[in-house]
Design goal:
The protein contains one helix and nine strands. It is an alpha+beta fold. It has one domain: Immunoglobulins (Immunoglobulin-like). Strands 2, 4, 5, 6, 8 and 9 form a six-stranded mixed sheet that branches. A three-stranded antiparallel sheet has the order 1-3-7, with no helix packed on it. The longest helix has 25 residues. The termini are far apart.
Length: 146
């Protein structure tokens, strides 16, 4: 019985250590005071069909996807996304989750006329949101009918 108990405790210790190593390898901590925000357009602004979105970042740096540097990440623009993505997994590529893995700090986008929401989410070198997530406030823009 003692041997079984010893093996069981050893198994638990190894499993916990492996999970901690996995978490350290794939997840990135965000530093205190880290903040991402949309410089422009402003919340409530009326914009043309094609417009520029400029990204702002405080207390962190920007690095391309695939480059593991502490306290850095790259931007993801969430467009008309009702629910936030899973913060434990790499962000999926879609029209609603736009990736800027090259380290871009602005983009030109084209949207249909009407109201749209925009939000930024910083991802680490593997497109996984930081812990805690570095997520901007959601803004709403109105694309004018041209």
């Amino acid at each position: 019985m003692i041997i079984i108990r010893t093996f069981f405790l050893l198994f638990i210790a190894v499993a916990v250590s492996w999970n901690m190593a996995f978490a350290e390898e794939y997840f990135s901590e965000s530093p205190p005071g880290a903040k991402v925000y949309i410089i422009s357009p402003k919340d409530g602004e009326v914009v043309s069909k094609t417009f520029t979105v400029r990204f702002g970042l405080v207390n962190m740096g920007v690095a391309p996807a695939g480059v593991k540097v502490p306290n850095t990440g790259h931007h993801h623009l969430l467009v008309d996304l009702e629910n936030l993505p899973d913060m434990e997994k790499p962000l999926a590529f879609s029209e609603n989750v736009r990736h800027f893995g090259g380290g871009q700090t602005e983009t030109e986008i084209t949207l249909a006329p009407g109201k749209h929401t925009l939000r930024l989410l910083l991802g680490n070198y593997l497109h996984i949101p930081h812990k805690p997530p570095v997520l901007s406030e959601k803004i709403t823009v109105t694309v004018k009918d041209q």
